[in-house]
Amino acid sequence: MVIPAIYSFAFQAQELPQKLNHATQDLLEGTHTGYWLCEFSVAPKNSSTNPLYIALLEGRVVSSGNQPFSWTSLLETLQRYIPRLRHPSVRQTTLTLERKLTSTHQNTKRIAIPKLLNELRKLSLVSSAEITQALRLKILSDLDQCLFDGSGQAQFLPSPQLHIESPIPGFDLETLLADAQKRQVLWRNLQSQVPSIECVPVLKTEAVACSNLSIEQKRRLESLVLGDKTLNDIASTLAQDSLEIAKGFAKLIGEGLVTLDGSTASVVPEIVIVDDSPIILNQFKRLVTTWGYQVKLSQNPATALKTILHSNPSIIFLDINMPEITGFDLVKQIRRQPKLASVPLVMLTAEKTLSNNWRAQWGGCKFLSKPVVMQEVSRFQVELRELLEELAPLQVSNQIEPHLVQEK
């Protein structure tokens, strides 16, 4: 269902913060619940977030990202900033709770987000303060990337569902924008040493050996830069704010212990999957990222094309049976886009009918049956891996060996 915008405005570079605050506080009277959807005709530099959704609960910011708020996006944020949620046993507990608290409403699967978070709190796996801090850092990171350099159009889309789904009361928009302005100054001051958070730090071995760092500090530094990780990768590994990591490495660069290589980072194929089931999306992402791929998820088929157009997919997976828009409908939409005309498409379904198989072949697509019972999971993983190796092969340096990701 397409929700009409109740207010919109155009913006040029540097105009978005002021216009966003004015529109929220004055025109919307600071009481509306929904999304500011910011679409960039001229994309901000070094940004992978386009479009930008800013979710408001009664005028207060509760989340941001390139899709509307969902359990999938929330879990990704929490795992980014709360390391214990990445542990295999905690992932399994979370998945069990997802299944328990998922309901189907009008053919759409929904997770009771507040209830799920409450269960995680009861198990002492996460605290309210950690959830709030993780969301704040994610919002500031998105504002770092998108707020100042781009130009385009913003519109406000009402969404009462956020009253039910939002995990926090929210942050004051004006305060967030002021914090983002201060962070922008810090980023600019760092730019001469750290031109991009996607640069790869390279250790100056002899300088480190002769430095005053302790043995433990030297070992830690060596482990951080091992494997051609970007600064952004390191920030994710440490569950830290990217700005703090950039400041730390700027100090190391100033001391002559590290240099940055902007060309060392290898290109990792991006995989897009569209499925209305948050459980399927999370399981797919967990599996495919362990193989070394980037993954972008879309739970809403109505906005999937927009998500895909703002990505750089090497391959697109589409669930066939979704509400409102089927996978076959999306195939037609995708193939009308010149940018996507040659991107391989794989149709996902639990059905194994010849009709579906034939229709997928007719659309120039591959066909992959999702596992229905546990005995089919191994078969599915093998076929999925073969498809990815055929259609979107990884460079050797990006591949993660299976024995390194097996859960213990």
Structural description of this entry:
The chain has 408 residues and is an alpha/beta fold. It has three domains: 116 residues, no CATH class; 68 residues; 130 residues, Rossmann fold (3-Layer(aba) Sandwich), CATH 3.40.50.2300. It has 16 helices and 14 strands. The strands form four sheets. It has a five-stranded antiparallel sheet with strand order 1-7-2-3-4. Strands 11-10-12-13-14 form a five-stranded parallel sheet, sandwiched between helices. Strand 5 and strand 6 form a beta hairpin. Helix 2 crosses helix 5, helix 5 packs across helix 7 and helix 10 packs across helix 11. The longest helix is centred in the middle third of the chain and has 19 residues. The radius of gyration is 22 Å and the shape is globular. The two termini are 43 Å apart. The C terminus is likely disordered.
Quick structural summary:
The protein is of the alpha/beta class and 408 residues long. The chain has 16 helices and 14 strands.
Task: Compute the CA-based radius of gyration.
Answer: 22 Å
Low-confidence runs (pLDDT<50, min 5 residues)?
A: 400-408
Please count the beta strands (DSSP E, at least 2 residues each): 14
Q: Assign the CATH topology of the largest domain.
A: Rossmann fold
Record the strand order, biggest sheet.
Answer: 1-7-2-3-4
Order of helices and strands: EHEEEHHEEHHEHHEHHHHEEHEHEHEHEH
| First-last Cα distance | 43 Å
Going by CATH, what is the homologous superfamily of the largest domain?
A: Response regulator
Helix content: 40-55%
Q: Percent of residues in beta strands?
A: 15-25%
Would you tell me the overall average pLDDT? 86
- Could you give a short account of the major beta sheet? 5 strands, antiparallel
Structural class: alpha/beta
The top-level CATH class of the largest domain is: Alpha Beta
Global geometry:
globular
**Count of the domains:** 3
Number of helices, counting only DSSP H or I runs of 4 residues or more: 16
**Level-2 CATH architecture of the largest domain:** 3-Layer(aba) Sandwich
